[in-house]
Amino acid sequence: MALFLITHLGMSAVEIRSRLIGAMGRWLYESVYSLISLATFIPLVVVFGHHKHAGAMLWNFRDLAMARSLAWLIMFGSLVLLVAGFSTLSSAAIKAQSEGRQHGIFKLTRHPAFVSVALFGLAHMMMNGWLGDLTFFGGFIILGVVGGWHQDQRKIRELGEPYLRLIEQTSFMPGAALLAGRQRWQADDMPWRAIAIGAVVTLLLIAFHPMFFGGYPLGG
After folding, report:
1. Which uninterrupted H or E stretch holds 161?
2. Cβ(74)–Cβ(122) below 8 Å
3. Is there a smaller number of Cβ atoms within 10 Å at the N or the C end of the chain?
4. How far apart are CA 72 and CA 78, in angstroms?
5. Domain check: are 63 and 43 in the same one?
């Protein structure tokens, strides 16, 4: 996990990324970045698969129906954010953002994909209190939080004042800008398609989780 995070976040750091793009060109940099990400992430997943529930157990909420339901609610939110974030990235949405106007899920958080990754890690940490599992899933929280911060720093450098204004108007923490009154949620902001897809995927995960990942999402 340390190797994956260091390479993944290190290569995307503002100074390092700029120097690598300057030396390699953007296309080659992105290709190498993707290859290194896969070369560290795939072995990480394989190693975890062979060492599930390793180490001391720090907590066990698996028999608590309320905790299990909360974990699935967080996972559902994670999936909705992921789908909504990618589906909202249309040319119209990008133009609106460049003009300082937010729409849809970006009123909730300016980094839906990174928040989705962090929520994935949080939900699984709740249900897997072993030290080895916490190390694995905790890495996703680090990736989500630090990744969002990294992206902000890069866009501030690339876009300058317009992106600083966007940061002032939005929030990384879901809902913070809405609660602070910096954004106002409207009926057409509701990501109904993402909610529907998220619900379907959640049900599929509950049904097939024991087959592909082990464990029993509904208890037992």
Report:
1. helix 161-169
2. yes
3. C
4. 10
5. no
207 and 119 inside one domain: yes
Within 8 A by CB and 6+ apart from 182, the residues are 168, 169, 170, 171
Q: What is the pTM of this model?
A: 0.89
Q: Same domain for 112 and 185?
A: yes
Phi-psi region of 154 (alpha: psi -120 to 50; beta: other; left: phi over 0): alpha
The tens digit of pLDDT for each residue in 43-88 reads 999 999 999 999 999 999 988 989 999 999 999 999 999 999 887 7
Whether residues 42 and 58 fall in one domain: no
pLDDT digits (tens, 9 = 90+) for 147-199: 999 889 888 988 888 889 889 999 999 999 999 999 999 988 999 999 999 99
Structural domain total, the chain: 2
43 and 60 part of one domain: no
